[in-house]
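Something for you to look into today, if you have time. Could you write out one complete protein record for me, on any chain you like? The space below this message is yours for that.
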Amino acid sequence: MDTSKRAKILIQAMPYIKKYSGETIVVKYGGNAMINEELKAAVMSDLVLMQLVGINVVLVHGGGPEINAMLRAVGKESKFENGMRVTDKETIDIVQMVLAGKVNKSLVQLLESHGGKAIGLCGLDGKLLMADKLVSSVDLGYVGEIREVNPDPLKNAMSNGYIPIVATVAGGYDGNVYNINADLAAAQIAAKLGAKKLILMTDIRGLLRDVNDESSLISVVNVSEVPMLKRDGIIKGGMIPKIDCCVEAVRSGVSRAHIIDGRIEHSILLELFSDEGIGTMFY
């Protein structure tokens, strides 16, 4: 890339840097961007850059593949109902160990290796996430539904220059530990913090009018259009819960919610700091 193109990119980013400096952005991290080493490095450098230009960043992560691997190692089969993990007593112990332990702390170490300051948290810390058992048509075991988000641990971390990295297990009012869907947790955390943006990283370009045609990306959606898009079969399957999270976040006061393709290097920066953006934005 020649020097003039580099300069244009920097100039294009300036108004966005000014716009988001001092604001809070919540990123839900998952999918291929959490497995591929080059993409992991790109995400971490994106987060560090965001922090350096004055953005308050919160990273919320899942860890499905690592949980599946540990369950296989102990001879236990992963079971899912309606896209949610069936979580018995042995499984929730493994979920807590893997998410709040191995995955969370490895992300802290990785971000700090890229020059950032991070602190690992889970929903049990400072009663960050409090939940009841999720009531559904099928008993999912120790799967929870968030009732309260305490933003103080996150605010304290950010005010001291740290990026909080949050594993989504929650404390139950009944004294149990509950597994929480990371998309839902990110949406509720973003709402409680009054975040400027919620960004969900996925393994697809965004909302497609035709799932077999990536050029049919719908770039902008008003949340009032979502019921119609569901009726028309454009929002279906695994996209329904992700988009419902975006709708919930926006209706709870988050300015914008985005579904972006985590398979693209530096997709977060492209969404935040370029005129074109990528993915689908909900407002």
